[in-house]
UniProtKB/TrEMBL annotation:
This is Reverse transcriptase zinc-binding domain-containing protein. The lineage of its organism: Eukaryota, Viridiplantae, Streptophyta, Embryophyta, Tracheophyta. It comes from Brachypodium distachyon.
Length: 133
């Protein structure tokens, strides 16, 4: 379970992003980032799909193999961060999860990340991907 004890996040252990879809599944790492309908819709926006019957390691490995834009880890980590932010906005501010905001945040985070790369192929690769968002 992903809830932190020191914050008052309510007493439910169910996925906030699925809630109130009946029946909301428990919030697990696997569910939140790979199995959650909201997360799957977000990932699909950028062309990443997950095999629902595989382990996390296998899922990430096979998605990385299918990915042809480069910088998979950077995009995966920032996309996951965005799912986490949408989850927190729902729990702590009661803001409905938004695929549009997720994508906007991903684009902004990737643009910031692009400043870290020198003007080389990674910079160009990332800039091209961000342009497609
Ligand atoms: Zn969910």
């Amino acid at each position: 379970m992903l809830r932190m004890r020191k914050y008052n996040a309510g007493d439910t252990w169910l996925c906030a992003l699925c809630h109130p879809a009946p029946p909301p599944p428990p919030e697990t790492l696997e569910h939140l980032f790979f199995g959650c309908r909201f997360a799957q819709d977000c990932w699909a926006e950028i062309g990443i799909t997950w095999d629902q019957n595989s382990s996390i390691i296998h899922n990430i490995d096979s998605a990385k193999r299918r990915w042809n834009h480069g910088l998979f880890w950077e995009i995966f980590m920032l996309g996951s961060w965005g799912v986490w932010k949408e989850r927190n906005a729902k729990i702590f501010e009661n803001i409905a999860p938004s695929k549009r905001y997720w994508k906007r945040r991903l684009k902004a985070d990737l643009e910031l990340l692009n400043f870290r790369f020198a003007k080389d192929s990674q910079n160009t690769q990332l800039a091209c991907f961000v342009f497609t968002l």
